[in-house]
Fold each of these.
Amino acid sequence: MGKTKYMMSGGLAFSEDKDMERLRACSLNGWHICDIKFMGYALERGESTDYIYSVDYQTVNEEESEEYFDLFSAAGWTHITSKGDIHLFRATPGTKPIHSDRATVAVKHDNLGKSLKWLAISMLFMTVLVWMGALISTGPLRTMLAIIATILCIVSIPLGWTVMTIYHNKWKAKGKKGLVHLVKTIPFLFILSVAVIISVVVDNSGRAFRIFASMAIGAIAFPAAIWIIMSLYHKVRGNRV
Amino acid sequence: MAALTKPRHGYAIMSLIEETTKGTITIGPASMYTIIKKLLKQEWIYLYDGTDSRRKTYLLTEAGKAVLEEDVKLRKMMIQLAENGLKEAGEWGKPSI
């Protein structure tokens, strides 16, 4: 058996608490996180220990990083790894949480959302623009634009969803109930409207059903494929090192 | 903010608050860092000594002092109000027989 393995994340924006609980469970089984990977974590074999985990989002530049990490270690939190603005810490159970009030938790989610917000907005804008281009053009240009638009859709929908979830987390921390409910209903409205549009545009009901089925299969197969590729990649590389 | 009437670094503020409130109030490290960043941006505190990059010390600015004084005044009034309220409640609550 290898010394390291890959564990897929539920997406930090979507399941931060759940991910941290899973990391704790893995540590109890003797698998400790050592690195943040593409859409997941690298775990390494060690002794079974009860550790609790916390993640913080903060833009820390070179000269500020010592001060930042010193605050955590002084409070009993060991820094494990960082990826960009995402910093992961570990401590023994009973250590005081890294956030002590809701206002700073809201800032934390804002730190993560800020960087993604404009990317998501410009991507959505571009997607709409290319779709419109595809609708008004004809011939090979239309096919090309339609393909580009589809690719943009595949990227921008999860991205938009992620940003919405981050702001949902932020507003939840701030106690803004109305906004939280609004954000929660948007994905359902979106799926519903896509379903309605497809049913209306595609007159043949058999074909419409096939489109829904392939969408559902795609939604399951895409993350599964990433998990398989990352696990294999990790195994092959882990054995070589 | 009240902990920065004397130059102190982040961890010293965390320990001071924990000690003076006997552990009733604690500040987490992520919260502490976020609060320092916010106060610096508002120019209510400034970097007093940055020679030790691990333990930089901060001090209140004049603007920060004014804000703190205002805040204390407001809180005093609120405490006064609450104390008066409790006194009244005590008088009302006495058995009438």
Amino acid sequence: MEIPLWIILVPLAIVVALTALFLFFNVFHLARYGVAHRGTVPLILVYLVSYAFVLVVGVGALGSVLWTRTIPLGDLLPFSSSRGSPSFGL
Amino acid sequence: MMDLKTLPNCLPNEKVVLFLRRHWIDLLRIFFLSGFLFILPIIVGVLVELGNPELIVHAFWGPALTVALFAYLLIVLVLTFTELTDYWLDVWIVTTERIINTEQHGLFNRVISEVYLSQIQDVTSETKGYLATFLTFGNVFVQTAAERERFQFKNIDNPDDVKIAITGLAKTCKTSHGHEAHQETPKKIAP
């Protein structure tokens, strides 16, 4: 039995959606309830730029992976095929 | 955004005297914790690389670890934002007429309260601990005549100076408004 590699993108998509929602709430709170004082607008910009930076770097790092590939379930354990059971020096 | 020049329910001739936030040590705590959480995957990555180098290049676990790292960084980033927003929205505004206390507890819990300077009965400053004494930060408690919990300025810079300023403003306010205009007079109980 094989599983498609893209399946691990599903929890990532949920995390991205939730963090984007929380980013929106943070920006909304600052814009709505913050005091019009030096620092509030730059702080909102820092939020947006740093989130976008992590998003772009992350997507870039994942871009090189061939997500349409399938992996046999037996290969999920990294040592199952390459190494035998430990001999403990016997 | 709330403008300091046009406060909600602004009284005639009311001016902002003090605009206070929590001490920068609270900001430093947030940055230290976030910094640690950001470098934690590097430490874990080095340990995994040393313990089992095959895991990083594995057909499934390689991409899975990259996805996990990506998700982790996004979560830590947003938690840092939430803490920063909490810090940024905790403000105390002292005007010539009143004190406005705005406190953010997490993202969905916000408390705004105000007290008129003429209602103030007692102002107490508190500096507790080595770090607070060395960096001169602490709490200021404002007690009114009404039966409500004490008004608290949490972890502000120079609490003693703030206490003196509030006491002086309250005195000036009471003098200019007539003695204790907003205060309830105690009723006499018949014998």
Amino acid sequence: MPHPLVPVPTPETQPFWDGCEDGVLRINRCRACGDAYFPPSLICPECSSTDVEFFDATGDATLYSYTIQQKPFALWDSDGPRSVALVRLAEGPLLTSSIVNCEQTPEALQLDMPVRATFVPFDEITVLCFEPVGEQP
Amino acid sequence: MIPPGATAIVGAAESTEIGTVPDMSSVGLAVDAAANAMRDAGITAADIDGFTCGYFPVADMSRQLGIFPSWADNTVVGGCSWMFQLRNAVAAIHAGYCNTVLIVYGESGKSTRGLGQSFDAGQRGGTGQQFDMFYSGGQAAATFTLPVVRYQHEYGLTDEELAVGAVSQREWAVDVPRATLREPTSVEEVLASPMIAWPIRRAMCCLVSDAGGALVVTSSDRAKDYPKPPVYVLGTGGALEAGVMSPGGVREPLRPEFIRTSGDAAFGSSGVTHADIDHLMIYDAFIHNPIFGLEGLGFVEYGEGGHFIAEGHTAPGGKLPMNTSGGGLSYAHTGAYGMLCMLESIRQVRGEAANQVADVDIALCHGWGGYWSACSTLIFGNSAP
């Protein structure tokens, strides 16, 4: 049995997880009202339509807020501090994630900085994280 | 609409011991608190026909207490579950489903004895488990606090100003014999405490405690027959928002609508205004919670809550006494603090708090559940309108 906190996909969320394996951020969009939303669901949280689809998002986002965990969850392959972040996707949804591939310091983690989706092995599956775009401070 | 003061708290108690209680399980703490609350109300199980408990199988717990209720509720929304249950009990009593409700809570949060410390948002395949908890391992200090950096950035709240909340609450706790932390502290000491999840230091996080608590609620016409002065339930509110175990599900994290929804319902149903509130409890699992509560409930404008606390308005001598037991940061915090939060409001309205504020006629208690999944607002008074 994997650790209890290793994500277990369900039929409704499987396309998102397949996207992670393929290196693509795949989220839901409502065909009726156009709302893009996350996490995956069979119903649009904006207009209650069930005419919804998965689509490949740009992966572009900005850093909304964050904390820096001093002792990360043991399943992450890191001893030092590690960010937990709120990230605003270009398509609109706000989601919890982590900023990787940069220093885990307040200086490196600037609010509103552009980040993009990156996909990281985590125990038995691949999960969504984000990394800074462009020059590192 | 339920008239303000239609019901009243006639029994209220904590477990005999709180803090570190390794010789009791969660069930034991709950039963001990239930016995104390029934004794406080001068009744036995035979007088109770409604029952709620939250983290335990409700029928198991009622049978253990010898209660055979005709109405029961087991709403679980995290730390403010018992506040939701009180709101439901008020409605049930008003509807005539039952006359007298016992609301029971116990949690061996520190000693972890027995069952019942779970608000299990991490169930396999659930939304929280799939999309949120693994980033932090579910560490509350790293996730519940996620909006803090944004708040500081938007509203210019320094770490020093943020730290004042912990100092103010310790000032209250100094005079509270049952509080876990009673030594005065300082901004410097708070900021020098170990970093847990930047910018959150240990002294900005709640305690981890063992405790139980229980309430007896009945209709106001019956309430006058009990030994203690009734604490009337004037207004109630409750709302859900974030969904998963972090503020990522809050639509506008710096202006969470569910707080306003809950507060408006409580004020609207009570008929009182902000100026009538003599005493305030805002559930503080972490230092930022009261800031968002003050703003969302409308005591101050958005962006002003942090500075309001930093200026000392909620500390001893301030114009809005808040978290007078010392709160989750200094008094006790089991994991689900909602019951303990309500009990301090009730003690203040009864006039029997360790740190009694003068002339508390009306008190407001606001609690959270599942980080920002849920909140509830209750307004208590020492008379019915």
Amino acid sequence: MLGYILRRLIATLPVMLIVAVLVFLMLRLTPGDPAAIIAGDNANNEQIALIRNRLGLDEPIFTQFFIWIANILRGDFGESFFFKKTVAELIASRLEPTLALSLATIILAVAIAVPLGVLAAYKHGTLIDKVVMGFSVLGFSVPVFVIGYLLIYLFAIKLNWLPVQGYQRIADGVGGFLQRLILPALTLSVIYVALIARMTRTSVLDVMNEDYIRTARAKGQVEIKVLFKHALKNAAVPIVTVIGLGVALLIGGVVVTESVFTIPGLGRLTVDAVLARDYPTIQAVILLFSLVYVLINLAVDLAYTLFDPRIRY
Amino acid sequence: MASRSLRMMALVVAAALAFCGAAGAKTLRASMHSDLKIVDPIWTTALITVNHGYMIYDTLFALDAKLAVQPQMVDRYETSADKLTWTFTLRDGLEWHDGARVTAEDCVASLKRWGARDAMGQKLMSFVAELGAPDAKTIRMTLKEPYGLVLQTLAKPGASVPFMMPKRIAETDPQKQITEYVGSGPFIFKADEWRPGEKAVYLKNAKYKPRSEPASGLAGGKVAKVDRVEWIWIADAQTQVNALINGEIDFIEAPPHDLLPLLAEDKNIELFVFGKSGRQNALRFNTLHKPFDNAKIRLAVAYALNQKDLLDAVIGTPRWYVECKSLFPCGSPLQSTTGWDDKFTSDFAKARALLQEAGYDGSPVVLMQSTDIASLSNLAPVTKSLLEKAGFKVDLQAMDWQTLVTRRTKKDPPNAGGWSTFLTSWASVDILDPVAASFLNASCEKATFGWPCDAEMEKLRDSFAKETDPAKQKAIAEAVQLRLVDYPTHLMLGQYVQPQAFRKNVVGLLEAPSLALWNIEVK
């Protein structure tokens, strides 16, 4: 197992290198010049060239790339073109809100979606099944920002239960932290709930006619035990896979949700950096997102062994 | 240095403690038009940084609500008979936020740094033979020849304001950003609470000595009436509106025009326009390439367009806009429609006749459309439609603003990655005269993107700069406007104002050329 983890971690390196090359090239090939943006409306070409020189953007693209890679290997992700901060500092300051939002979303989504999916499978073909599946289709179809606005309208403006926007760090009080996290997490979890509930229903349905389910029932097991102990555990591998793959979906959703709810996380940082063509920040954030995605896939692969003893690494 | 840092820290701590301890301490929570990313107002022209500058720095002169120049940090000033020597005496009691006294030397260093970056500052400095501080309260400026815009330049609002900073900070290389944020203005920047992408915080400067005159525009007594100001960055316009309705913020600096009816319906919210002079929409020509290398073809555009259609497309209701054919903003001293009364009438017959006379060969007009700025996006399709009706062939190319900003610096032909024209807008206070309006700069290679090249226009701009008699300045400004008919560098497409939205418990907002957050109370 340890050898497998080590091999997977080593395999991460070429993946990250490819991501680095791609993100670097894409940014350089995308129209937009940070120097012209920084220079503002009154600048002439001479002043813009001066800024470009100071940022090192007038160097050949290969030189820029190798300087960047060499700096990363030394643990230096560079300094943001716009914020007078190192990229590492910027990311560190934005990590907590995004982590909190992502974790809350996953917890909420799993807590809602898995029982819903199991229920839909158990009540297969009934009204409950159709309602759950209808909700799934709706969850997929409605854009995240629309769900966000609807929830804000209901819970913040009409009922006045929760704030419209903002984020409170956990160190400044758990109550405020949770109060501000509920709506964004609920918003972001809708699409995730739809995805997981659908997959749970299908997977559980697949195993419901297996011999061991019939055996469990014949032994007089109560239905809830049959469903959650026997059926769900055997159906878990595809569900865990979907939860892992859904992280990519989550990253995209975080960008929108953080904008709608004014959460100062990595999603907003990405949007701001892209709009300003802040190359060092965009590059570092994309690398971080890629690394997280690769590691989550590894975690998902390892989680298979918990649910299916036949899987060995 | 250590003692200065300690003094500064003590002052901020004292201000913070006073804030925490004061019963009923008042906080103004404002949602600004942009996030505060850069805090050096000399290094960048970003409007949000200018707003930040007015919070913590002060200026030697300032414009009042009627756009007239008034002394601010300066107590009195005099000019020699030959108009070559200007002497400015600072007010008593001016202090930096670190407790040190404001000296003339600080101001001289500040003017030199600003003069190295700002276009109007550079122009002023090109006339300056000597700038010095004969004593701690006196600034002396000796000119090579009379310059008619000394006070207007020192009082300029808008982009790149001559803010005063301590000498040690002002001596920072103008090409680099400052790293210490000490001013002498009515608020103190709380750098430790500044979280880019989230919020910026300012505390009342209890030691600030306001002028005795009532506050007017950016001039007069700047009295901070709240203990703390928080600029909360809310990127999403709809969320800004929801937060204001819900009472989570007190003020929105720039709500989009299409959401104004929603705000106007709420009984707890009021709309207010602090900048009555507003902004002017403009169409910029690239004079290097066909078809706009021909002045007559550029003039044909003026006949083809009309301001009403364009303003309706982006602002909607005439309550917030005004059709204005003046080159210099309507409501400003140099307002005039001389030479332009018959333009912007969508007189397609006249436009077609001009195109024929100029020998227009059907070269496509590459019109760059910025799609991510609501106040600009809709201008482009309307412009395209009107130009096509006049006989132009138009290639509308959509892109985000940052791409446009980059592409407009390219001198390549329009069909090889260059451009022919684009639409933008200026704060009216940035285009009050022929020197300030950078689109009138027709110095060829040294001009901004579009690179107009016209010796006559440059001669007029120079004579405006040297003229000290306001009546003669006005006559020269009219001559510039007439010259623009023969040599259009850009076209003015109407003026609009940006209302602010605030909750009714916020009182004391000032009409001013830039956002002024002093004088405001939260009841």
